[in-house]
Amino acid sequence: MRSVEAVGRTREEALRRALEKLGAREEEVEVEVLEEGPRALWGLLGRARVKVRVTIKEEPPERARGLVQRLLDLMGAGSKAEVASKSGGEVRIDIKGGDLSTVIGKGGRTLEALQYLVNLMLARAGEGVRVVLDADGYRRRREEALRRMAKEAARRALREGRAVKVGPLPAHERRIIHLALSGDPRVITYSEGEEPQRRVVVAPRRGRH
Question: Which CATH architecture has domain 60-136?
């Protein structure tokens, strides 16, 4: 976050000097008056003095990254959050370094919970962005592994003529299995069981077994 302090005889003069230092426009900054003595306030004779701190406003992706970083610091993970990409209202943030096993958690549950919390906090703050968190490529690798598991389960179900169970898996991972096989007309998928032991069942389309 870039900020400068500047002094002037009036708020306007101090702000103008700060904007010149930053090379920014007034609508791009936040202004905090640090000092405004009685002479400056009432316009009495003497040397008026107003001191301001001017800070460049952060864009939503950077505010989202900052929020993730603060949560990582509270976890004591020693990791760093970086904006990986921005597309429309979606911001992908990658977490690198430190104790990534703690950040990811068993089956990615901690990472998923962290993503949910960040999006909840951003929504309550009125930010118009949705965050997708990854940890050094973990989410991409895990999704690829789940799609392979889905295809293998479908092959087994068709070869053996019976239902094949995958899991237990958390809800977001079960969804990946369902989506991976949604275009295969030979099989059906559904979930069964109670959390946290809920599984995906892959069965030949002729019926559930």
Answer: 2-Layer Sandwich (3.30)
Q: So what's the pLDDT on residue 128?
A: 79
Question: pTM of the predicted model, to two decimals?
Answer: 0.61
Residues 114, 71: contact at Cβ < 8 Å?
A: yes
Instruction: Say how far apart CA 74 and CA 89 lie, in whole Å.
Output: 27
Q: Tell me phi and psi for residue 121, to 5 degrees.
A: -65, -40
Q: What is the mean pLDDT of residues 19-43?
A: 73
CATH number for the domain whose boundaries are 141-204: 3.30.1370.50
Residue type, 5: E
